[in-house]
């Protein structure tokens, strides 16, 4: 019998296979070792970072925190743009919160007259450029017990929603304007177009997180007068509010004190809802926000 097919041949073949298998196993073991080693390094670094954030460590160990500040530079800007909100309280289902956007305007005094006649208070989300035009209206709102809230300075969607920093810069201007007239900083605001819209969808999560971090609370609405629509009638505005207010939920009503039609409808709206025993209240910093996402 020759070598091929003999016992010796098969013995050598088996040994060769075992040696090859051992070599392959060794090769992959080394790769796995180094892979795990590299994989553990970031975890160890993260662990160190977590520890150094929790304790007071020397300055040279806080470099990661500095890199965060660089990534979100607006967090270190506008140092006066902070408020300390009161503890949140739920809105009442029996209450109606009339809110007026975009003013003050040449009609605002007449809006205030109607509210005064009925002895009720409302919330005005004001625009900074109009605050500068009608400072006496801001002083009157404040004196008569209405809530003055922020609706940005410029109301220019593309500009204010171009970045978080751009929004904060605009917001700080109207905040300062209100403070200079009332001596009080407002902790409430409303995003132009609502908290989520086609202009801010790229940044709204980051933006709302930053505003909440600074202590501000924002309100959307769940009843709309529709007074900003074209070709709307006074009767439509009255029914849009009076027919959609409900005791199944709190009622935050969106209106505009820049609308003459809305002004003509306001008295009828108040009379209709008072007849149904609804109570009118202004929003306060202690109110739990009503937003589109809740």
Please, could you describe this protein's structure?
This protein is of the alpha/beta class. The chain contains ten helices and eight strands. The strands form two sheets. Strands 1, 2, 3, 6, 7 and 8 form a six-stranded parallel β-sheet that branches. Strand 1, helix 3 and strand 2 form a beta-alpha-beta unit. Helix 9 packs parallel to helix 10. The longest helix has 48 residues. The radius of gyration is 32 Å and the shape is elongated. The protein starts with 6 loop residues before the first helix and ends in a 14-residue tail after the last strand. About 14% of the residues have low confidence.
Residue share in β-strands: 5-15%
Give Rg in angstroms.
Answer: 32 Å
Residue-averaged pLDDT: 84
Percent helix, as a range, is 40-55%
Number of strands: 8
Measure the end-to-end span: 88 Å
Q: Which overall shape is indicated by the principal axes computed on the Cα atoms?
A: elongated
List the helices and strands and how they pair.
Blueprint: H1 7-54, H2 63-71, E1 95-101, H3 108-117, E2 123-126, H4 128-133, H5 135-143, E3 147-150, H6 157-160, H7 164-182, E4 188-189, H8 204-213, E5 217-218, E6 223-224, H9 234-242, E7 251-256, H10 260-275, E8 279-280
Parallel strand pairs: 1-2, 1-7, 1-8, 2-3, 4-5, 6-7
Helix pairs in contact: 9-10
């Amino acid at each position: 019998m020759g070598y091929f097919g003999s016992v010796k041949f098969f013995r050598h073949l088996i040994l060769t296979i075992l040696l090859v298998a051992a070599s392959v196993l060794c090769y992959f073991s080394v790769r796995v070792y180094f892979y795990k080693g590299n994989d553990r390094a970031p975890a160890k670094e993260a662990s160190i970072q977590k520890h150094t954030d929790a304790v007071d460590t020397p300055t040279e160990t806080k470099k990661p925190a500095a890199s965060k500040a660089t990534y979100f530079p607006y967090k270190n800007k506008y140092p006066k743009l902070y408020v300390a909100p009161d503890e949140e309280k739920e809105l009442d289902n029996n209450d109606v919160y009339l809110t007026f956007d975009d003013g003050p305007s040449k009609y605002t005094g007449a809006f205030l007259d109607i509210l005064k006649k009925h002895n009720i208070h409302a919330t005005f989300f004001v625009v900074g450029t109009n605050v500068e035009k009608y400072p006496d209206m801001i002083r009157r709102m404040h004196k008569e017990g209405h809530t003055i809230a922020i609706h940005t300075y410029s109301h220019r969607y593309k500009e204010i929603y171009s970045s978080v920093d751009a929004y904060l810069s605009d917001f700080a201007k109207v905040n300062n304007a209100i403070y200079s007239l009332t001596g009080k900083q407002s902790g409430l605001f409303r995003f132009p177009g609502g908290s989520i819209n086609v202009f801010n969808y790229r940044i709204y999560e980051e933006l709302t997180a930053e505003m909440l971090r600074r202590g501000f609370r924002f309100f959307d609405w769940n009843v709309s007068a529709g007074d900003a629509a074209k070709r709307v009638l006074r009767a439509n505005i009255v029914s849009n509010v009076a027919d959609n207010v409900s005791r199944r939920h709190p009622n935050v009503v969106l209106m505009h004190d820049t609308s003459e039609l809305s002004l003509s409808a306001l008295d009828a709206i108040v009379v209709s809802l008072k007849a149904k025993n609804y109570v009118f209240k202004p929003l306060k910093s202690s109110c739990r926000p009503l937003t589109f996402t809740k």
